[in-house]
């Protein structure tokens, strides 16, 4: 098995203005000494309006954490009011962009075809997509969650070459676990993350599947991260609520790095 470095990405969702963003990034950076970054990659994913401030801070203070955006336009430029393009995000120094988050699928009606176009837009501009897949509670109750997530994964990657797939980060986020405090068990997370990796192996080859990081997301906290990352196919987490508290997030990152706590 490839040694995949865990990634902890904090998705702030629609929270924190740019002043608050600076304060939170400083808090995280202060709490996490350089040695932790050897064992875990840490990213913050603030709202668009905060990214320039985060960029200035990260570049100015040579911080080891990276950052990204919560969405990307499928288009490069033009009359698309309200959209933010890949070239703009690349110019802001973003490493990551979240694509296909269930909140975008649900509240903005993003379908698999649009998610696929956004994944391509991200890769075209050198951004790493954090591609989210996950089932709603009804699907889990029917017992078809693995097939559902695998279908979302393949649809989002449609038309990509294996070498492009290597650059994607996949995040399994069961919708019923997001912001609910109802975390999937480590075994639940492993079941789907493992199945997604197997699907990648079937379609793009074992070597690519082995290299791709598969994260879990949904009510991840410092209290449950250690057991989640112990699973063979869980390579970190996409964290919502717990990423808004600097101390808690730093603790969570340290635990994903194998501890000890800062
Ligand atoms: O992107 C993050 C996920 O939606 C998880 O959010 P949560 O940690 O608040 O449940």
UniProtKB/TrEMBL annotation:
<feature type="active site" description="Electrophile">
    <location>
        <position position="101"/>
    </location>
</feature>
<keyword id="KW-0963">Cytoplasm</keyword>
<dbReference type="InterPro" id="IPR020861">
    <property type="entry name" value="Triosephosphate_isomerase_AS"/>
</dbReference>
<feature type="binding site">
    <location>
        <begin position="240"/>
        <end position="241"/>
    </location>
    <ligand>
        <name>substrate</name>
    </ligand>
</feature>
<feature type="binding site">
    <location>
        <position position="219"/>
    </location>
    <ligand>
        <name>substrate</name>
    </ligand>
</feature>
<comment type="subunit">
    <text>Homodimer.</text>
</comment>
<dbReference type="InterPro" id="IPR013785">
    <property type="entry name" value="Aldolase_TIM"/>
</dbReference>
<keyword id="KW-0324">Glycolysis</keyword>
<dbReference type="GO" id="GO:0016853">
    <property type="term" value="F:isomerase activity"/>
</dbReference>
<feature type="binding site">
    <location>
        <begin position="11"/>
        <end position="13"/>
    </location>
    <ligand>
        <name>substrate</name>
    </ligand>
</feature>
<dbReference type="InterPro" id="IPR022896">
    <property type="entry name" value="TrioseP_Isoase_bac/euk"/>
</dbReference>
<comment type="function">
    <text>Involved in the gluconeogenesis. Catalyzes stereospecifically the conversion of dihydroxyacetone phosphate (DHAP) to D-glyceraldehyde-3-phosphate (G3P).</text>
</comment>
<dbReference type="Pfam" id="PF00121">
    <property type="entry name" value="TIM"/>
</dbReference>
<dbReference type="InterPro" id="IPR000652">
    <property type="entry name" value="Triosephosphate_isomerase"/>
</dbReference>
<dbReference type="InterPro" id="IPR035990">
    <property type="entry name" value="TIM_sf"/>
</dbReference>
<feature type="binding site">
    <location>
        <position position="179"/>
    </location>
    <ligand>
        <name>substrate</name>
    </ligand>
</feature>
<keyword id="KW-0312">Gluconeogenesis</keyword>
<comment type="pathway">
    <text>Carbohydrate degradation; glycolysis; D-glyceraldehyde 3-phosphate from glycerone phosphate: step 1/1.</text>
</comment>
<keyword id="KW-0413">Isomerase</keyword>
<protein>
    <recommendedName>
        <fullName>Triosephosphate isomerase</fullName>
        <ecNumber>5.3.1.1</ecNumber>
    </recommendedName>
</protein>
<feature type="active site" description="Proton acceptor">
    <location>
        <position position="173"/>
    </location>
</feature>
<comment type="pathway">
    <text>Carbohydrate biosynthesis; gluconeogenesis.</text>
</comment>
<comment type="similarity">
    <text>Belongs to the triosephosphate isomerase family.</text>
</comment>
């Amino acid at each position: 098995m490839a040694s995949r470095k865990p990634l902890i990405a904090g998705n702030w969702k629609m929270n924190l203005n740019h002043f608050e963003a600076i304060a939170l990034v400083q808090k995280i950076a202060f709490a996490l000494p350089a040695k932790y970054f050897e064992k875990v990659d840490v990213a913050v994913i603030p709202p668009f309006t905060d990214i320039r401030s985060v960029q200035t801070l990260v570049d100015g203070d040579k911080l080891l954490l990276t950052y990204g955006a919560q969405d990307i336009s499928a288009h490069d430029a033009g009359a698309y009011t309200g959209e933010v393009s890949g070239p703009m995000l690349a110019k802001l120094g973003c490493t990551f962009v979240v694509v296909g988050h269930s909140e975008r699928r649900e509240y903005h009606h993003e379908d698999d075809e649009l998610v696929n176009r956004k994944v391509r837009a991200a890769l075209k501009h050198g951004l790493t997509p954090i591609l989210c897949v996950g089932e709603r509670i009804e699907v889990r109750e029917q017992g078809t969650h693995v097939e559902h997530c695998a279908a979302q994964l393949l649809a989002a990657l449609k038309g990509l070459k294996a070498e492009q797939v290597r650059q994607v980060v996949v995040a399994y986020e069961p919708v019923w676990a997001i912001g609910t405090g109802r975390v999937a068990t480590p075994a639940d997370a492993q079941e789907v993350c493992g199945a997604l990796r197997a699907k990648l192996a079937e379609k793009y080859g074992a070597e690519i599947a082995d290299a791709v990081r598969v994260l879990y997301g949904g009510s991840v906290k410092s209290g449950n991260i250690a057991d989640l990352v112990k699973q063979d196919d869980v390579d970190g987490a996409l964290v919502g609520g717990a990423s808004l508290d600097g101390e808690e997030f730093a603790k969570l990152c340290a635990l994903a790095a194998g501890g000890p706590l800062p």
